[in-house]
Specification:
InterPro entries: Aminotrans_3 (IPR005814), Aminotrans_3_PPA_site (IPR049704), PyrdxlP-dep_Trfase (IPR015424), PyrdxlP-dep_Trfase_major (IPR015421), PyrdxlP-dep_Trfase_small (IPR015422). The protein is built from 15 helices and 15 strands. The chain is of the alpha/beta class. It has a seven-stranded mixed beta sheet with strand order 4-10-9-8-7-5-6, sandwiched between helices. The longest helix is centred in the last third of the chain and has 27 residues.
Length: about 475
């Protein structure tokens, strides 16, 4: 039974504890993301569980950042990594290849799915985004369309932390220090984020049509003959929180891109490799991209690896022209990383884990909607497969956001962690400045029992933070 709503300010709750981790203080030499708050030290990890150095355990309900698709500590993957390191640990791809890299490409693109013919393996999602943008430009260059230099993306998107990938992104918090330092030929259009951007009285079909008119209008504004590509996430990831587009949106995008000879790059770094219940997230949208970027689920966290999947028509243009990809990295197709990814992908296919992800996603949605039904601050629950987000609001009717200074979602995340469940926080959900959400992306191997624990813990944490918020308001104290 769901807990009752709070009708009056509760008694003051105890403060949220903050553990001290000796090995991760300012005295160490490792540069952490935060210079003020040290991260929690993980001593070991197995399955869906993280074992912290202080003896506590945590259910990894977000897979780190939607990375650990088969869970932690899989012995088959570890054995594959060791075996490859004993054979060939590194070669430079300007002169050499390795059987493991070739096998990985053949496995993920077996049968040339959706016309995707070639795979390029690099080290991170940011790297493959850069590679995708450069390859798209090279494609047009070799077709004697050198005027194409402009890139169009969407607001509330994220494509990476390197300069070009950050330029096409729209995560304002991460971009702010680099204003004026980015690639200049970029513009952004409205995202297919119905909860926030659909107008009152507007149907899904009307919303989709409006977004497509805006996209085509942007192409016409900058000159379609100057546009290299449109890049977007099939399902928006961490920046806005698992936003699924309305039906027909991506198909409409594909049609408009084709009309003007503009390439379509789909960023599946977070939502791909089975995360949404099909191997490619775009499969459920009935589109065929020109270039796909993937990363997190490819290696499952066992090695740093990402990939670029390229449609045959792009490859054919290069074959007829320079016969080369004018791009490369020292650790491209790294043998040990490829071995880890190959083992992960074999486990994924052999175990039917993509289908399991789809089925467990139905369970997760049901649990979220049941457990959070009485949480006043829950405005929207959205997602697909094992990729779900909960957006918080101050008022569920008006959709008014909490004051960003409160850090509502971050505090829910912290309470969850204190209770033994890790979820992924997001802020600036709505427009880069306001809005909060948390994201769930557990391993595909997660059990129903673990999902029950996760959702109940999330409910308890939300109710706890709601109580703290009400108490602070009632006592006119700083929230």
């Amino acid at each position: 039974m769901a807990p009752p709503r709070c009708t009056a300010p509760p008694p003051p709750p105890p403060p949220i504890a903050r553990e001290t981790v000796k090995a991760a203080t300012h005295k160490g030499r490792l540069l952490h993301r935060s210079l003020a708050n040290p991260p929690h030290m993980v001593a070991s990890a197995l399955g869906s569980t993280l074992h912290l150095a202080n003896g506590r355990t945590v259910i990894d309900a977000c897979g780190g950042a939607a990375v650990a698709i088969i869970g932690h500590g899989n012995q088959e993957v570890l054995d594959a990594v060791v075996a490859q390191a004993q054979k060939v640990s590194y070669v430079h791809t300007q002169s050499y290849s390795t059987p493991v890299a070739e096998e990985l490409a053949d496995l993920v693109l077996d049968g040339k799915p959706h016309g995707l013919e070639k795979a390029l393996f690099l080290g991170s999602g940011s790297e493959v985004t850069e590679a995708a943008l450069k390859l798209a430009r090279q494609y047009h260059f070799e077709r004697n369309e050198a005027r194409r230099v402009h890139l169009v993306s969407r607001k509330q998107s994220y494509h990476g932390n390197t300069m070009a990938s950050m330029s096409v992104s729209h995560n304002l918090a991460r971009k702010r220090p680099y204003e004026g330092f980015e690639y200049p030929h970029v513009s952004h259009v409205t995202p297919p984020y119905a909860y926030r951007y659909k107008l009152d009285g507007e149907t899904d079909g009307q919303f989709t049509a409006r977004l497509l008119r805006e996209l085509e209008g942007e192409f016409l504004r900058v000159g379609p003959e100057t546009v290299v590509a449109f890049i977007c996430e099939p399902i928006i990831g961490a920046t806005a929180g698992c936003v699924v587009p309305p039906a027909g949106y991506l198909a409409g995008v594909r049609s408009i891109c084709d009309k003007y000879g503009i390439l379509l790059i789909l960023d599946e770094v977070m939502c791909g490799t089975g995360r949404t219940g099909t191997f490619f997230a775009f499969e459920q949208e009935h589109v065929v991209p020109d270039i796909v970027t993937v990363a997190k689920g490819l290696g499952g966290g066992y090695a740093a690896i990402a990939a670029l999947y390229v449609h045959g028509r792009i490859i054919d243009t290069l074959r007829q022209g320079s016969q080369a990809v004018i791009h490369g990295h020292t650790y491209q197709a790294h043998p040990v990383s490829c071995a880890a990814a190959l083992a992960v992908q074999k486990i994924l296919k052999r175990g039917g884990l993509v289908e399991r992800c789809r089925d467990m996603g139905v369970v997760l949605e049901r649990l979220l909607r049941r457990e959070l039904a009485e949480c006043r601050s829950v405005g929207d629950i959205r997602g697909r497969g094992l990729f779900w987000a909960v957006e918080f609001v101050k008022d569920a009717v008006t959709k008014e956001c909490f004051d960003p200074l409160i850090g509502f979602g971050a505090k829910v995340t912290q309470i969850c962690l204190e209770k033994g469940v890790a979820v992924y926080p997001g802020s600036g959900t709505v427009d880069g400045l306001k809005g909060d959400h948390v994201l769930l992306a557990p391993p595909y191997t997660v059990t129903e029992e673990e999902l029950v624990t996760v959702c109940r813990t999330l409910r308890e944490s939300i109710l706890s933070q709601e109580a703290r918020y009400l108490y602070a308001r009632a006592n006119s104290s700083s929230p």
